[in-house]
Amino acid sequence: MLKNSILFLVVLLVFFFIAEGIVRLVLPPPQEVIVKPNTQKDIGNPNKLKERRCKSCDETDILDKTARGRRYSPNTHYTIQHGPQFDNHRVDVITNSLGHRGPELGAKQDKRVLFLGDSITASDYLDEEKTFVRVVESIARVKNKSWETINAGVGAIGVQEEFGILMDTGLQTNPDVVVLGFYLNDFERSPAVHLAHLPSPLDQSYFLRHLITALTFVLEDFKYGNKVVTAFDKNVMEIKQKNMRSEFLENHDIQEGDYKVKAEAFNKIVLERIFDWGGSWAPSSWDLMEPVIKEFKKQAGLHKFDFKIVVFPVSYQVYADNMYDYPQRRIMNIAAENDIALLDLLPVLRLSAKKMDEREMYYDHCHFTESGSRLVANEIFKFLM
Question: From the CA atom positions of the chain, what is the Rg in Å?
Answer without folding.
Answer: 22
